[in-house]
Amino acid sequence: MEPLKSTPLSAEHERLKALMAPFGGWNMPIQYEGIIAEHRWCREKAALFDICHMGEFLFKGDIVASGLEDVFTFSVASIPVGRSRYGFLLNENGGVIDDLIVFRLAEDEAMVVVNAATIDKDFAAISARLSGGEFRNISADTGKLDIQGPLSREVLAAVVGPEIATIPYFKFIRTKVLGADAIVSRTGYTGELGYEVFLPAEKTVELWNRLLADERVKPAGLGARDVLRLEVGYSLYGSDIDEATTPLEAGLDAFVNFDKAFIGKDALLRRRQDGLPRVKVAFEVTSRRSPRHDYEICFEGERVGTVTSGVFSPMLGRGIGIGFVTPDVATLGAPLTIRHEKVSMEATVVELPFYRGGSLRS
């Protein structure tokens, strides 16, 4: 077993008495005050997340001639400078190596932001598909903080400057933060108004403490982040999507551009023509009990699928979850039973997102 990696904020988490646990090969804060309290603070005020474990790659060169345009399920060349796009890096079978976001920094420059557990695998896969350009892994030199919540705009503007208040959703600016070159992006993983700040790793602690000095801001861990993202229906790599799962099964085909070339396209077209053996389904439990990863999903007494993510939703006051089932069961209103050993809970198939009241596009 390799030793767990630590972010530049590990001493700050220890000082705040955070509950730490392994995540994607990193020692990460799960909670500080408590998952429910941190979730509520993010929905109502502004929560600060340490996301330094994520990976960042920098590409410089001709987007098309280098082959970068054909690497992902979306077009990089058509992303306007100053905007970003979400999509997938697939294997030959159409399975998801990773879900990621590409930021178009300049006509000949892009930053790829990937999940922590797949940094090395992603870098190798992308590198193997390039025939030109400069491609570097800048993860170790890059810090990343996410501030999320309806008050995040005014909080961050007070520290970084008023220009961040005008950034539209999925757009970013290159600016100075604490005197260092940085990227401030209007993106996040919570369903609330929020920003992701990329800056030199050595500046992370200073920005963390500057933001926490504002009484409207509290730290939040990965526990609250998981509840927040599931309430708005966002997938988690390693749970809801992986190399054995295609974007078609996961209901994420909106992020696949079939009008362009990419590895895995032929496999997806065959899968779409032959029919999907399983599809993603969202469900609400009729009680406050939480469904969990790998619980059975049953219909009329027969097992028809498996839960991939589940939590108690503070906003809905009941358990919620997503999983994969046979296509005939994925009908709105269909009654399900979620089971695990002696645990049994009744549920109903619903539409995503579970929670629609966030400040995301405020």
Overview of the structural elements:
- The protein has 362 residues and is an alpha+beta fold.
- Among the domains are: 10-51 and 141-231, Gyrase A, domain 2; 277-350, Elongation Factor Tu (Ef-tu), domain 3 (Beta Barrel).
- 18% of the residues lie in helices and 34% in strands.
- It contains seven helices and 19 strands.
- The strands form four sheets. Strands 10-11-12-9-3-13 form a six-stranded mixed sheet. Strands 14-17-16-15-18-19 form a six-stranded antiparallel β-barrel.
- α2 packs across α6.
Concise summary:
This protein is 18% helix and 34% strand.
Low-confidence stretches: none
- Give the class-level CATH name of the domain at 10-51 and 141-231: Alpha Beta
CATH architecture of the domain at 10-51 and 141-231: 2-Layer Sandwich
Distance between the termini: 44 Å
Shape: globular
Properties at a glance:
six-stranded antiparallel β-barrel, 362 residues, 18% helix, Elongation Factor Tu (Ef-tu), domain 3, 7 helices
Helices and strands in order:
Blueprint: H1 10-15, E1 19-23, E2 26-31, H2 35-44, E3 46-50, E4 55-60, E5 84-90, E6 96-106, E7 109-114, H3 119-129, E8 134-137, E9 142-148, H4 152-160, E10 172-177, E11 180-185, E12 194-200, H5 204-212, E13 217-219, H6 222-231, H7 265-274, E14 279-285, E15 296-299, E16 302-313, E17 318-325, E18 335-340, E19 343-350
Parallel strand pairs: 3-13
Antiparallel strand pairs: 1-2, 3-9, 4-7, 4-8, 5-6, 6-7, 9-12, 10-11, 11-12, 14-17, 14-19, 15-16, 15-18, 16-17, 18-19
Helix pairs in contact: 2-6
